[in-house]
């Protein structure tokens, strides 16, 4: 969309963050301590500009806090965060694991699905 000066106007993403803002963070022009409001953000493992956001800038994360009635300062403080991430890792990585003979592991019939 163009404004009256003929310049393109940016649209925010699903969380209202502009691509130019995320690009500045990704390029290191804006330090993490300037945009992180939860105090736990780290850029060490981030790979794309879209990932350079604080959990408190993510509408779905804020919604989870509201839904369970938490006044948490960070998604890491959510009581289910550790359990959810561990289960997610296992679901995603587990099928890729093999034993020493190169065979994939399989769930046993009597294993609980927790």
Identify the overall geometry: extended
Largest sheet: none
Helicity level, as a percent range? Answer: 25-40%
The span between the termini is: 48 Å
Topology readout:
Layout: H1 19-26, H2 32-35, H3 59-68, H4 81-93
Annotation keywords:
4 helices; 0% strand; single chain; extended; 114 residues; mainly alpha
Question: How would you portray this structure in words?
Answer:
The relative contact order is 0.09. 31% of the residues lie in helices and 0% in strands. It starts with 18 loop residues before the first helix and ends in a 21-residue tail after the last helix. The model has no long low-confidence stretch (mean pLDDT 79). With 114 residues, it is mainly alpha-helical.
Q: What's this, in brief?
A:
With 114 residues, the chain is mainly alpha-helical. The chain is built from 4 helices and no strands. The longest helix is centred in the last third of the chain and has 13 residues, at 81-93.
């Amino acid at each position: 969309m163009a404004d009256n000066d003929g310049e393109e106007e940016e649209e925010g993403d699903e969380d209202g963050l502009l691509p130019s803002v995320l690009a500045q963070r990704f390029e290191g022009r804006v330090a993490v301590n300037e945009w992180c409001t939860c105090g736990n953000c780290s850029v060490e493992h981030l790979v794309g500009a879209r990932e350079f956001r604080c959990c408190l800038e993510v509408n779905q994360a804020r919604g989870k806090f509201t839904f369970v009635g938490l006044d948490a300062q960070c998604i890491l403080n959510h009581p289910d965060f550790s359990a959810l991430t561990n289960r997610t890792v296992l679901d995603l990585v587990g099928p890729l694991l093999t034993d020493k003979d190169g065979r994939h592991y399989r769930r046993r019939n009597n294993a609980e699905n927790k």
